[in-house]
Design brief:
The chain has 5 helices and 4 strands; from the N terminus they run ααβββαβαα. It is α+β, with helices and mostly antiparallel strands and 155 residues long. It starts with 9 loop residues before the first helix and ends in a 37-residue tail after the last helix.
Length: 155
């Protein structure tokens, strides 16, 4: 089973690259623990584009997004909720920590991330069924019969 890939716009990739440079102290501290598969071999990416959003940290194999929320997120709750719902709809689990939690309770933060990684990831959304030729037609996969054409083709 392969995950649905999203086409990521060039500007979003560039913005993600820009965000990797000025990390907050909390993001720097957490990244020091997540980078290079240090957390039980799980691979994390930082400032990773998913759809039209950029996740602070993402473990693609476990479909896990880790967000570190600073003081600015207090007035972004509607946006964060919409973003989390969209990511959940795409099959990602989102967990959030405050800067204060990362800076003062790293062991608890890492335990929570490990717990989330160890859980079975949610199923990605089901792909659309293959196009079957239009309304009213039946494909062979749906139990239709093949039709011979005058030119020797078969359906």
């Amino acid at each position: 089973m392969t995950a649905k890939r999203h086409r990521v716009h060039t500007f979003l990739v560039e913005r993600a690259r820009e965000l990797r440079q000025p990390q907050t102290p909390a993001e720097q501290k957490l990244w020091a623990w997540l980078r290079n598969r240090q957390l039980e071999g799980y691979k994390f990416r930082r400032q990773h584009p998913i759809g039209c959003f950029i996740a602070d940290f993402c473990c693609i194999e476990r479909r896990l997004v880790v967000e570190v929320d600073g003081d600015t997120h207090a007035d972004q709750e509607p946006y964060d909720l919409e973003r989390t719902e969209w990511l959940n709809d795409q099959g990602y689990t989102v967990i959030r920590f405050t800067n204060r939690e990362v800076m003062g309770q790293m062991a608890g933060v890492l335990d929570a991330i490990l717990d989330a990684c160890r859980k079975e990831p949610p199923s990605p959304p089901a792909p659309l069924p293959p196009y079957s030729g239009g309304e009213g037609s039946r494909s062979l996969a749906q139990g239709g019969e093949s039709a011979d054409h005058a030119d020797g083709r078969q359906e």
